[in-house]
Amino acid sequence: MHPVIAAAVMGGLGLIFGSFIAAVSVRLPRDEDIVVARSRCRGCDQPLRPWELVPLFSWLALQGRCARCQTRISRRYPLIELAGGAVGVWSALWASGGGTSVFLMAATAVLGWQLLLIAIVDGENFWLPDILTLPLIATGLVVAICASWDLALSHLIGGVVGFGGLWLVGWLYKAIRKRDGLGGGDPFLFAGAGAWVGWVGLPSVLLWACAVGLSLVFGMLVVRRTVSGTEKLPFGVFLAVGIWLTWLYGPLGL
């Protein structure tokens, strides 16, 4: 497939998945239905008409307001849709540049969209539910199995090591500091990292995650001049970035 066509197709799909991600990231923490329930205006509770569901363009056409009650529609929706589109385009260009298969391009996009949803939910709610992390593990193993059984074994080991390693870190932190240092979903997310990049990629995921986390803390210090030692940080967001970059560009130093 020509790179431009691939980017256009994947970008369009990304906008659609981005719209779904934006809706799920709101509904899931509220324990609302994420599959069957129709999208509604949060102001007047009226179901959205088909043309009001067109990603990005409907928000622009409505000038960011509900067509009925004029309630302002949050910018998070078009921004998440754009992020989904960017993941699709990035996946297409990466696959085209490396001469990889359409299957691998699709797998990369699926990984990116899963990580986007995980990062949004954790960033906004400090929560990594099993309904997001377990499918990440499953899809990673399926992709590895489709490649080869040897790769699948490496990635299965990666999933086990990822979960066990981060669970042990969390347990030791709690034993020493007498408080939780990691959320209960972080080991499952790191297991997902191992399922996608194999055990050999796990150190790189952690290095990227730490680099992103330290950059955020540095930015907070610049703005606020101080950061509390008990301040919560969404480690799942940092891990998601690490998984994505390690998948695309390989383990650091290898």
Automatic annotation (TrEMBL):
UniProt-listed GO biological process terms: methylation; signal peptide processing
GO molecular function, one term: methyltransferase activity
UniProt keywords, alphabetically: Cell inner membrane, Cell membrane, Hydrolase, Membrane, Methyltransferase, Multifunctional enzyme, Protease, Transferase, Transmembrane, Transmembrane helix
Entries under InterPro entries matching the protein: Peptidase_A24A_bac, Prepilin_IV_endopep_pep, Prepilin_pept_A24_N, Prepilin_peptidase/N-MTase
Gene Ontology cellular component annotations, sorted alphabetically: plasma membrane
Subcellular localization, as worded in the UniProt entry: Cell inner membrane; Cell membrane
Domain Prepilin type IV endopeptidase peptidase: 110-216
Membrane topology type: Multi-pass membrane protein
Record Pfam families: A24_N_bact, Peptidase_A24
Keyword Heme: no
Catalytic activity: Typically cleaves a -Gly-|-Phe- bond to release an N-terminal, basic peptide of 5-8 residues from type IV prepilin, and then N-methylates the new N-terminal amino group, the methyl donor being S-adenosyl-L-methionine
Enzyme Commission identifier(s): 2.1.1.-, 3.4.23.43
Transmembrane stretches, start-end: 6-28, 77-96, 102-120, 127-145, 151-169, 181-199, 205-223, 235-252
Boundaries of every Prepilin peptidase A24 N-terminal domain copy: 13-92
Domain of life assignment: Bacteria
Recorded family membership: Belongs to the peptidase A24 family.
Protein function: Plays an essential role in type IV pili and type II pseudopili formation by proteolytically removing the leader sequence from substrate proteins and subsequently monomethylating the alpha-amino group of the newly exposed N-terminal phenylalanine.
Protein name: Prepilin leader peptidase/N-methyltransferase
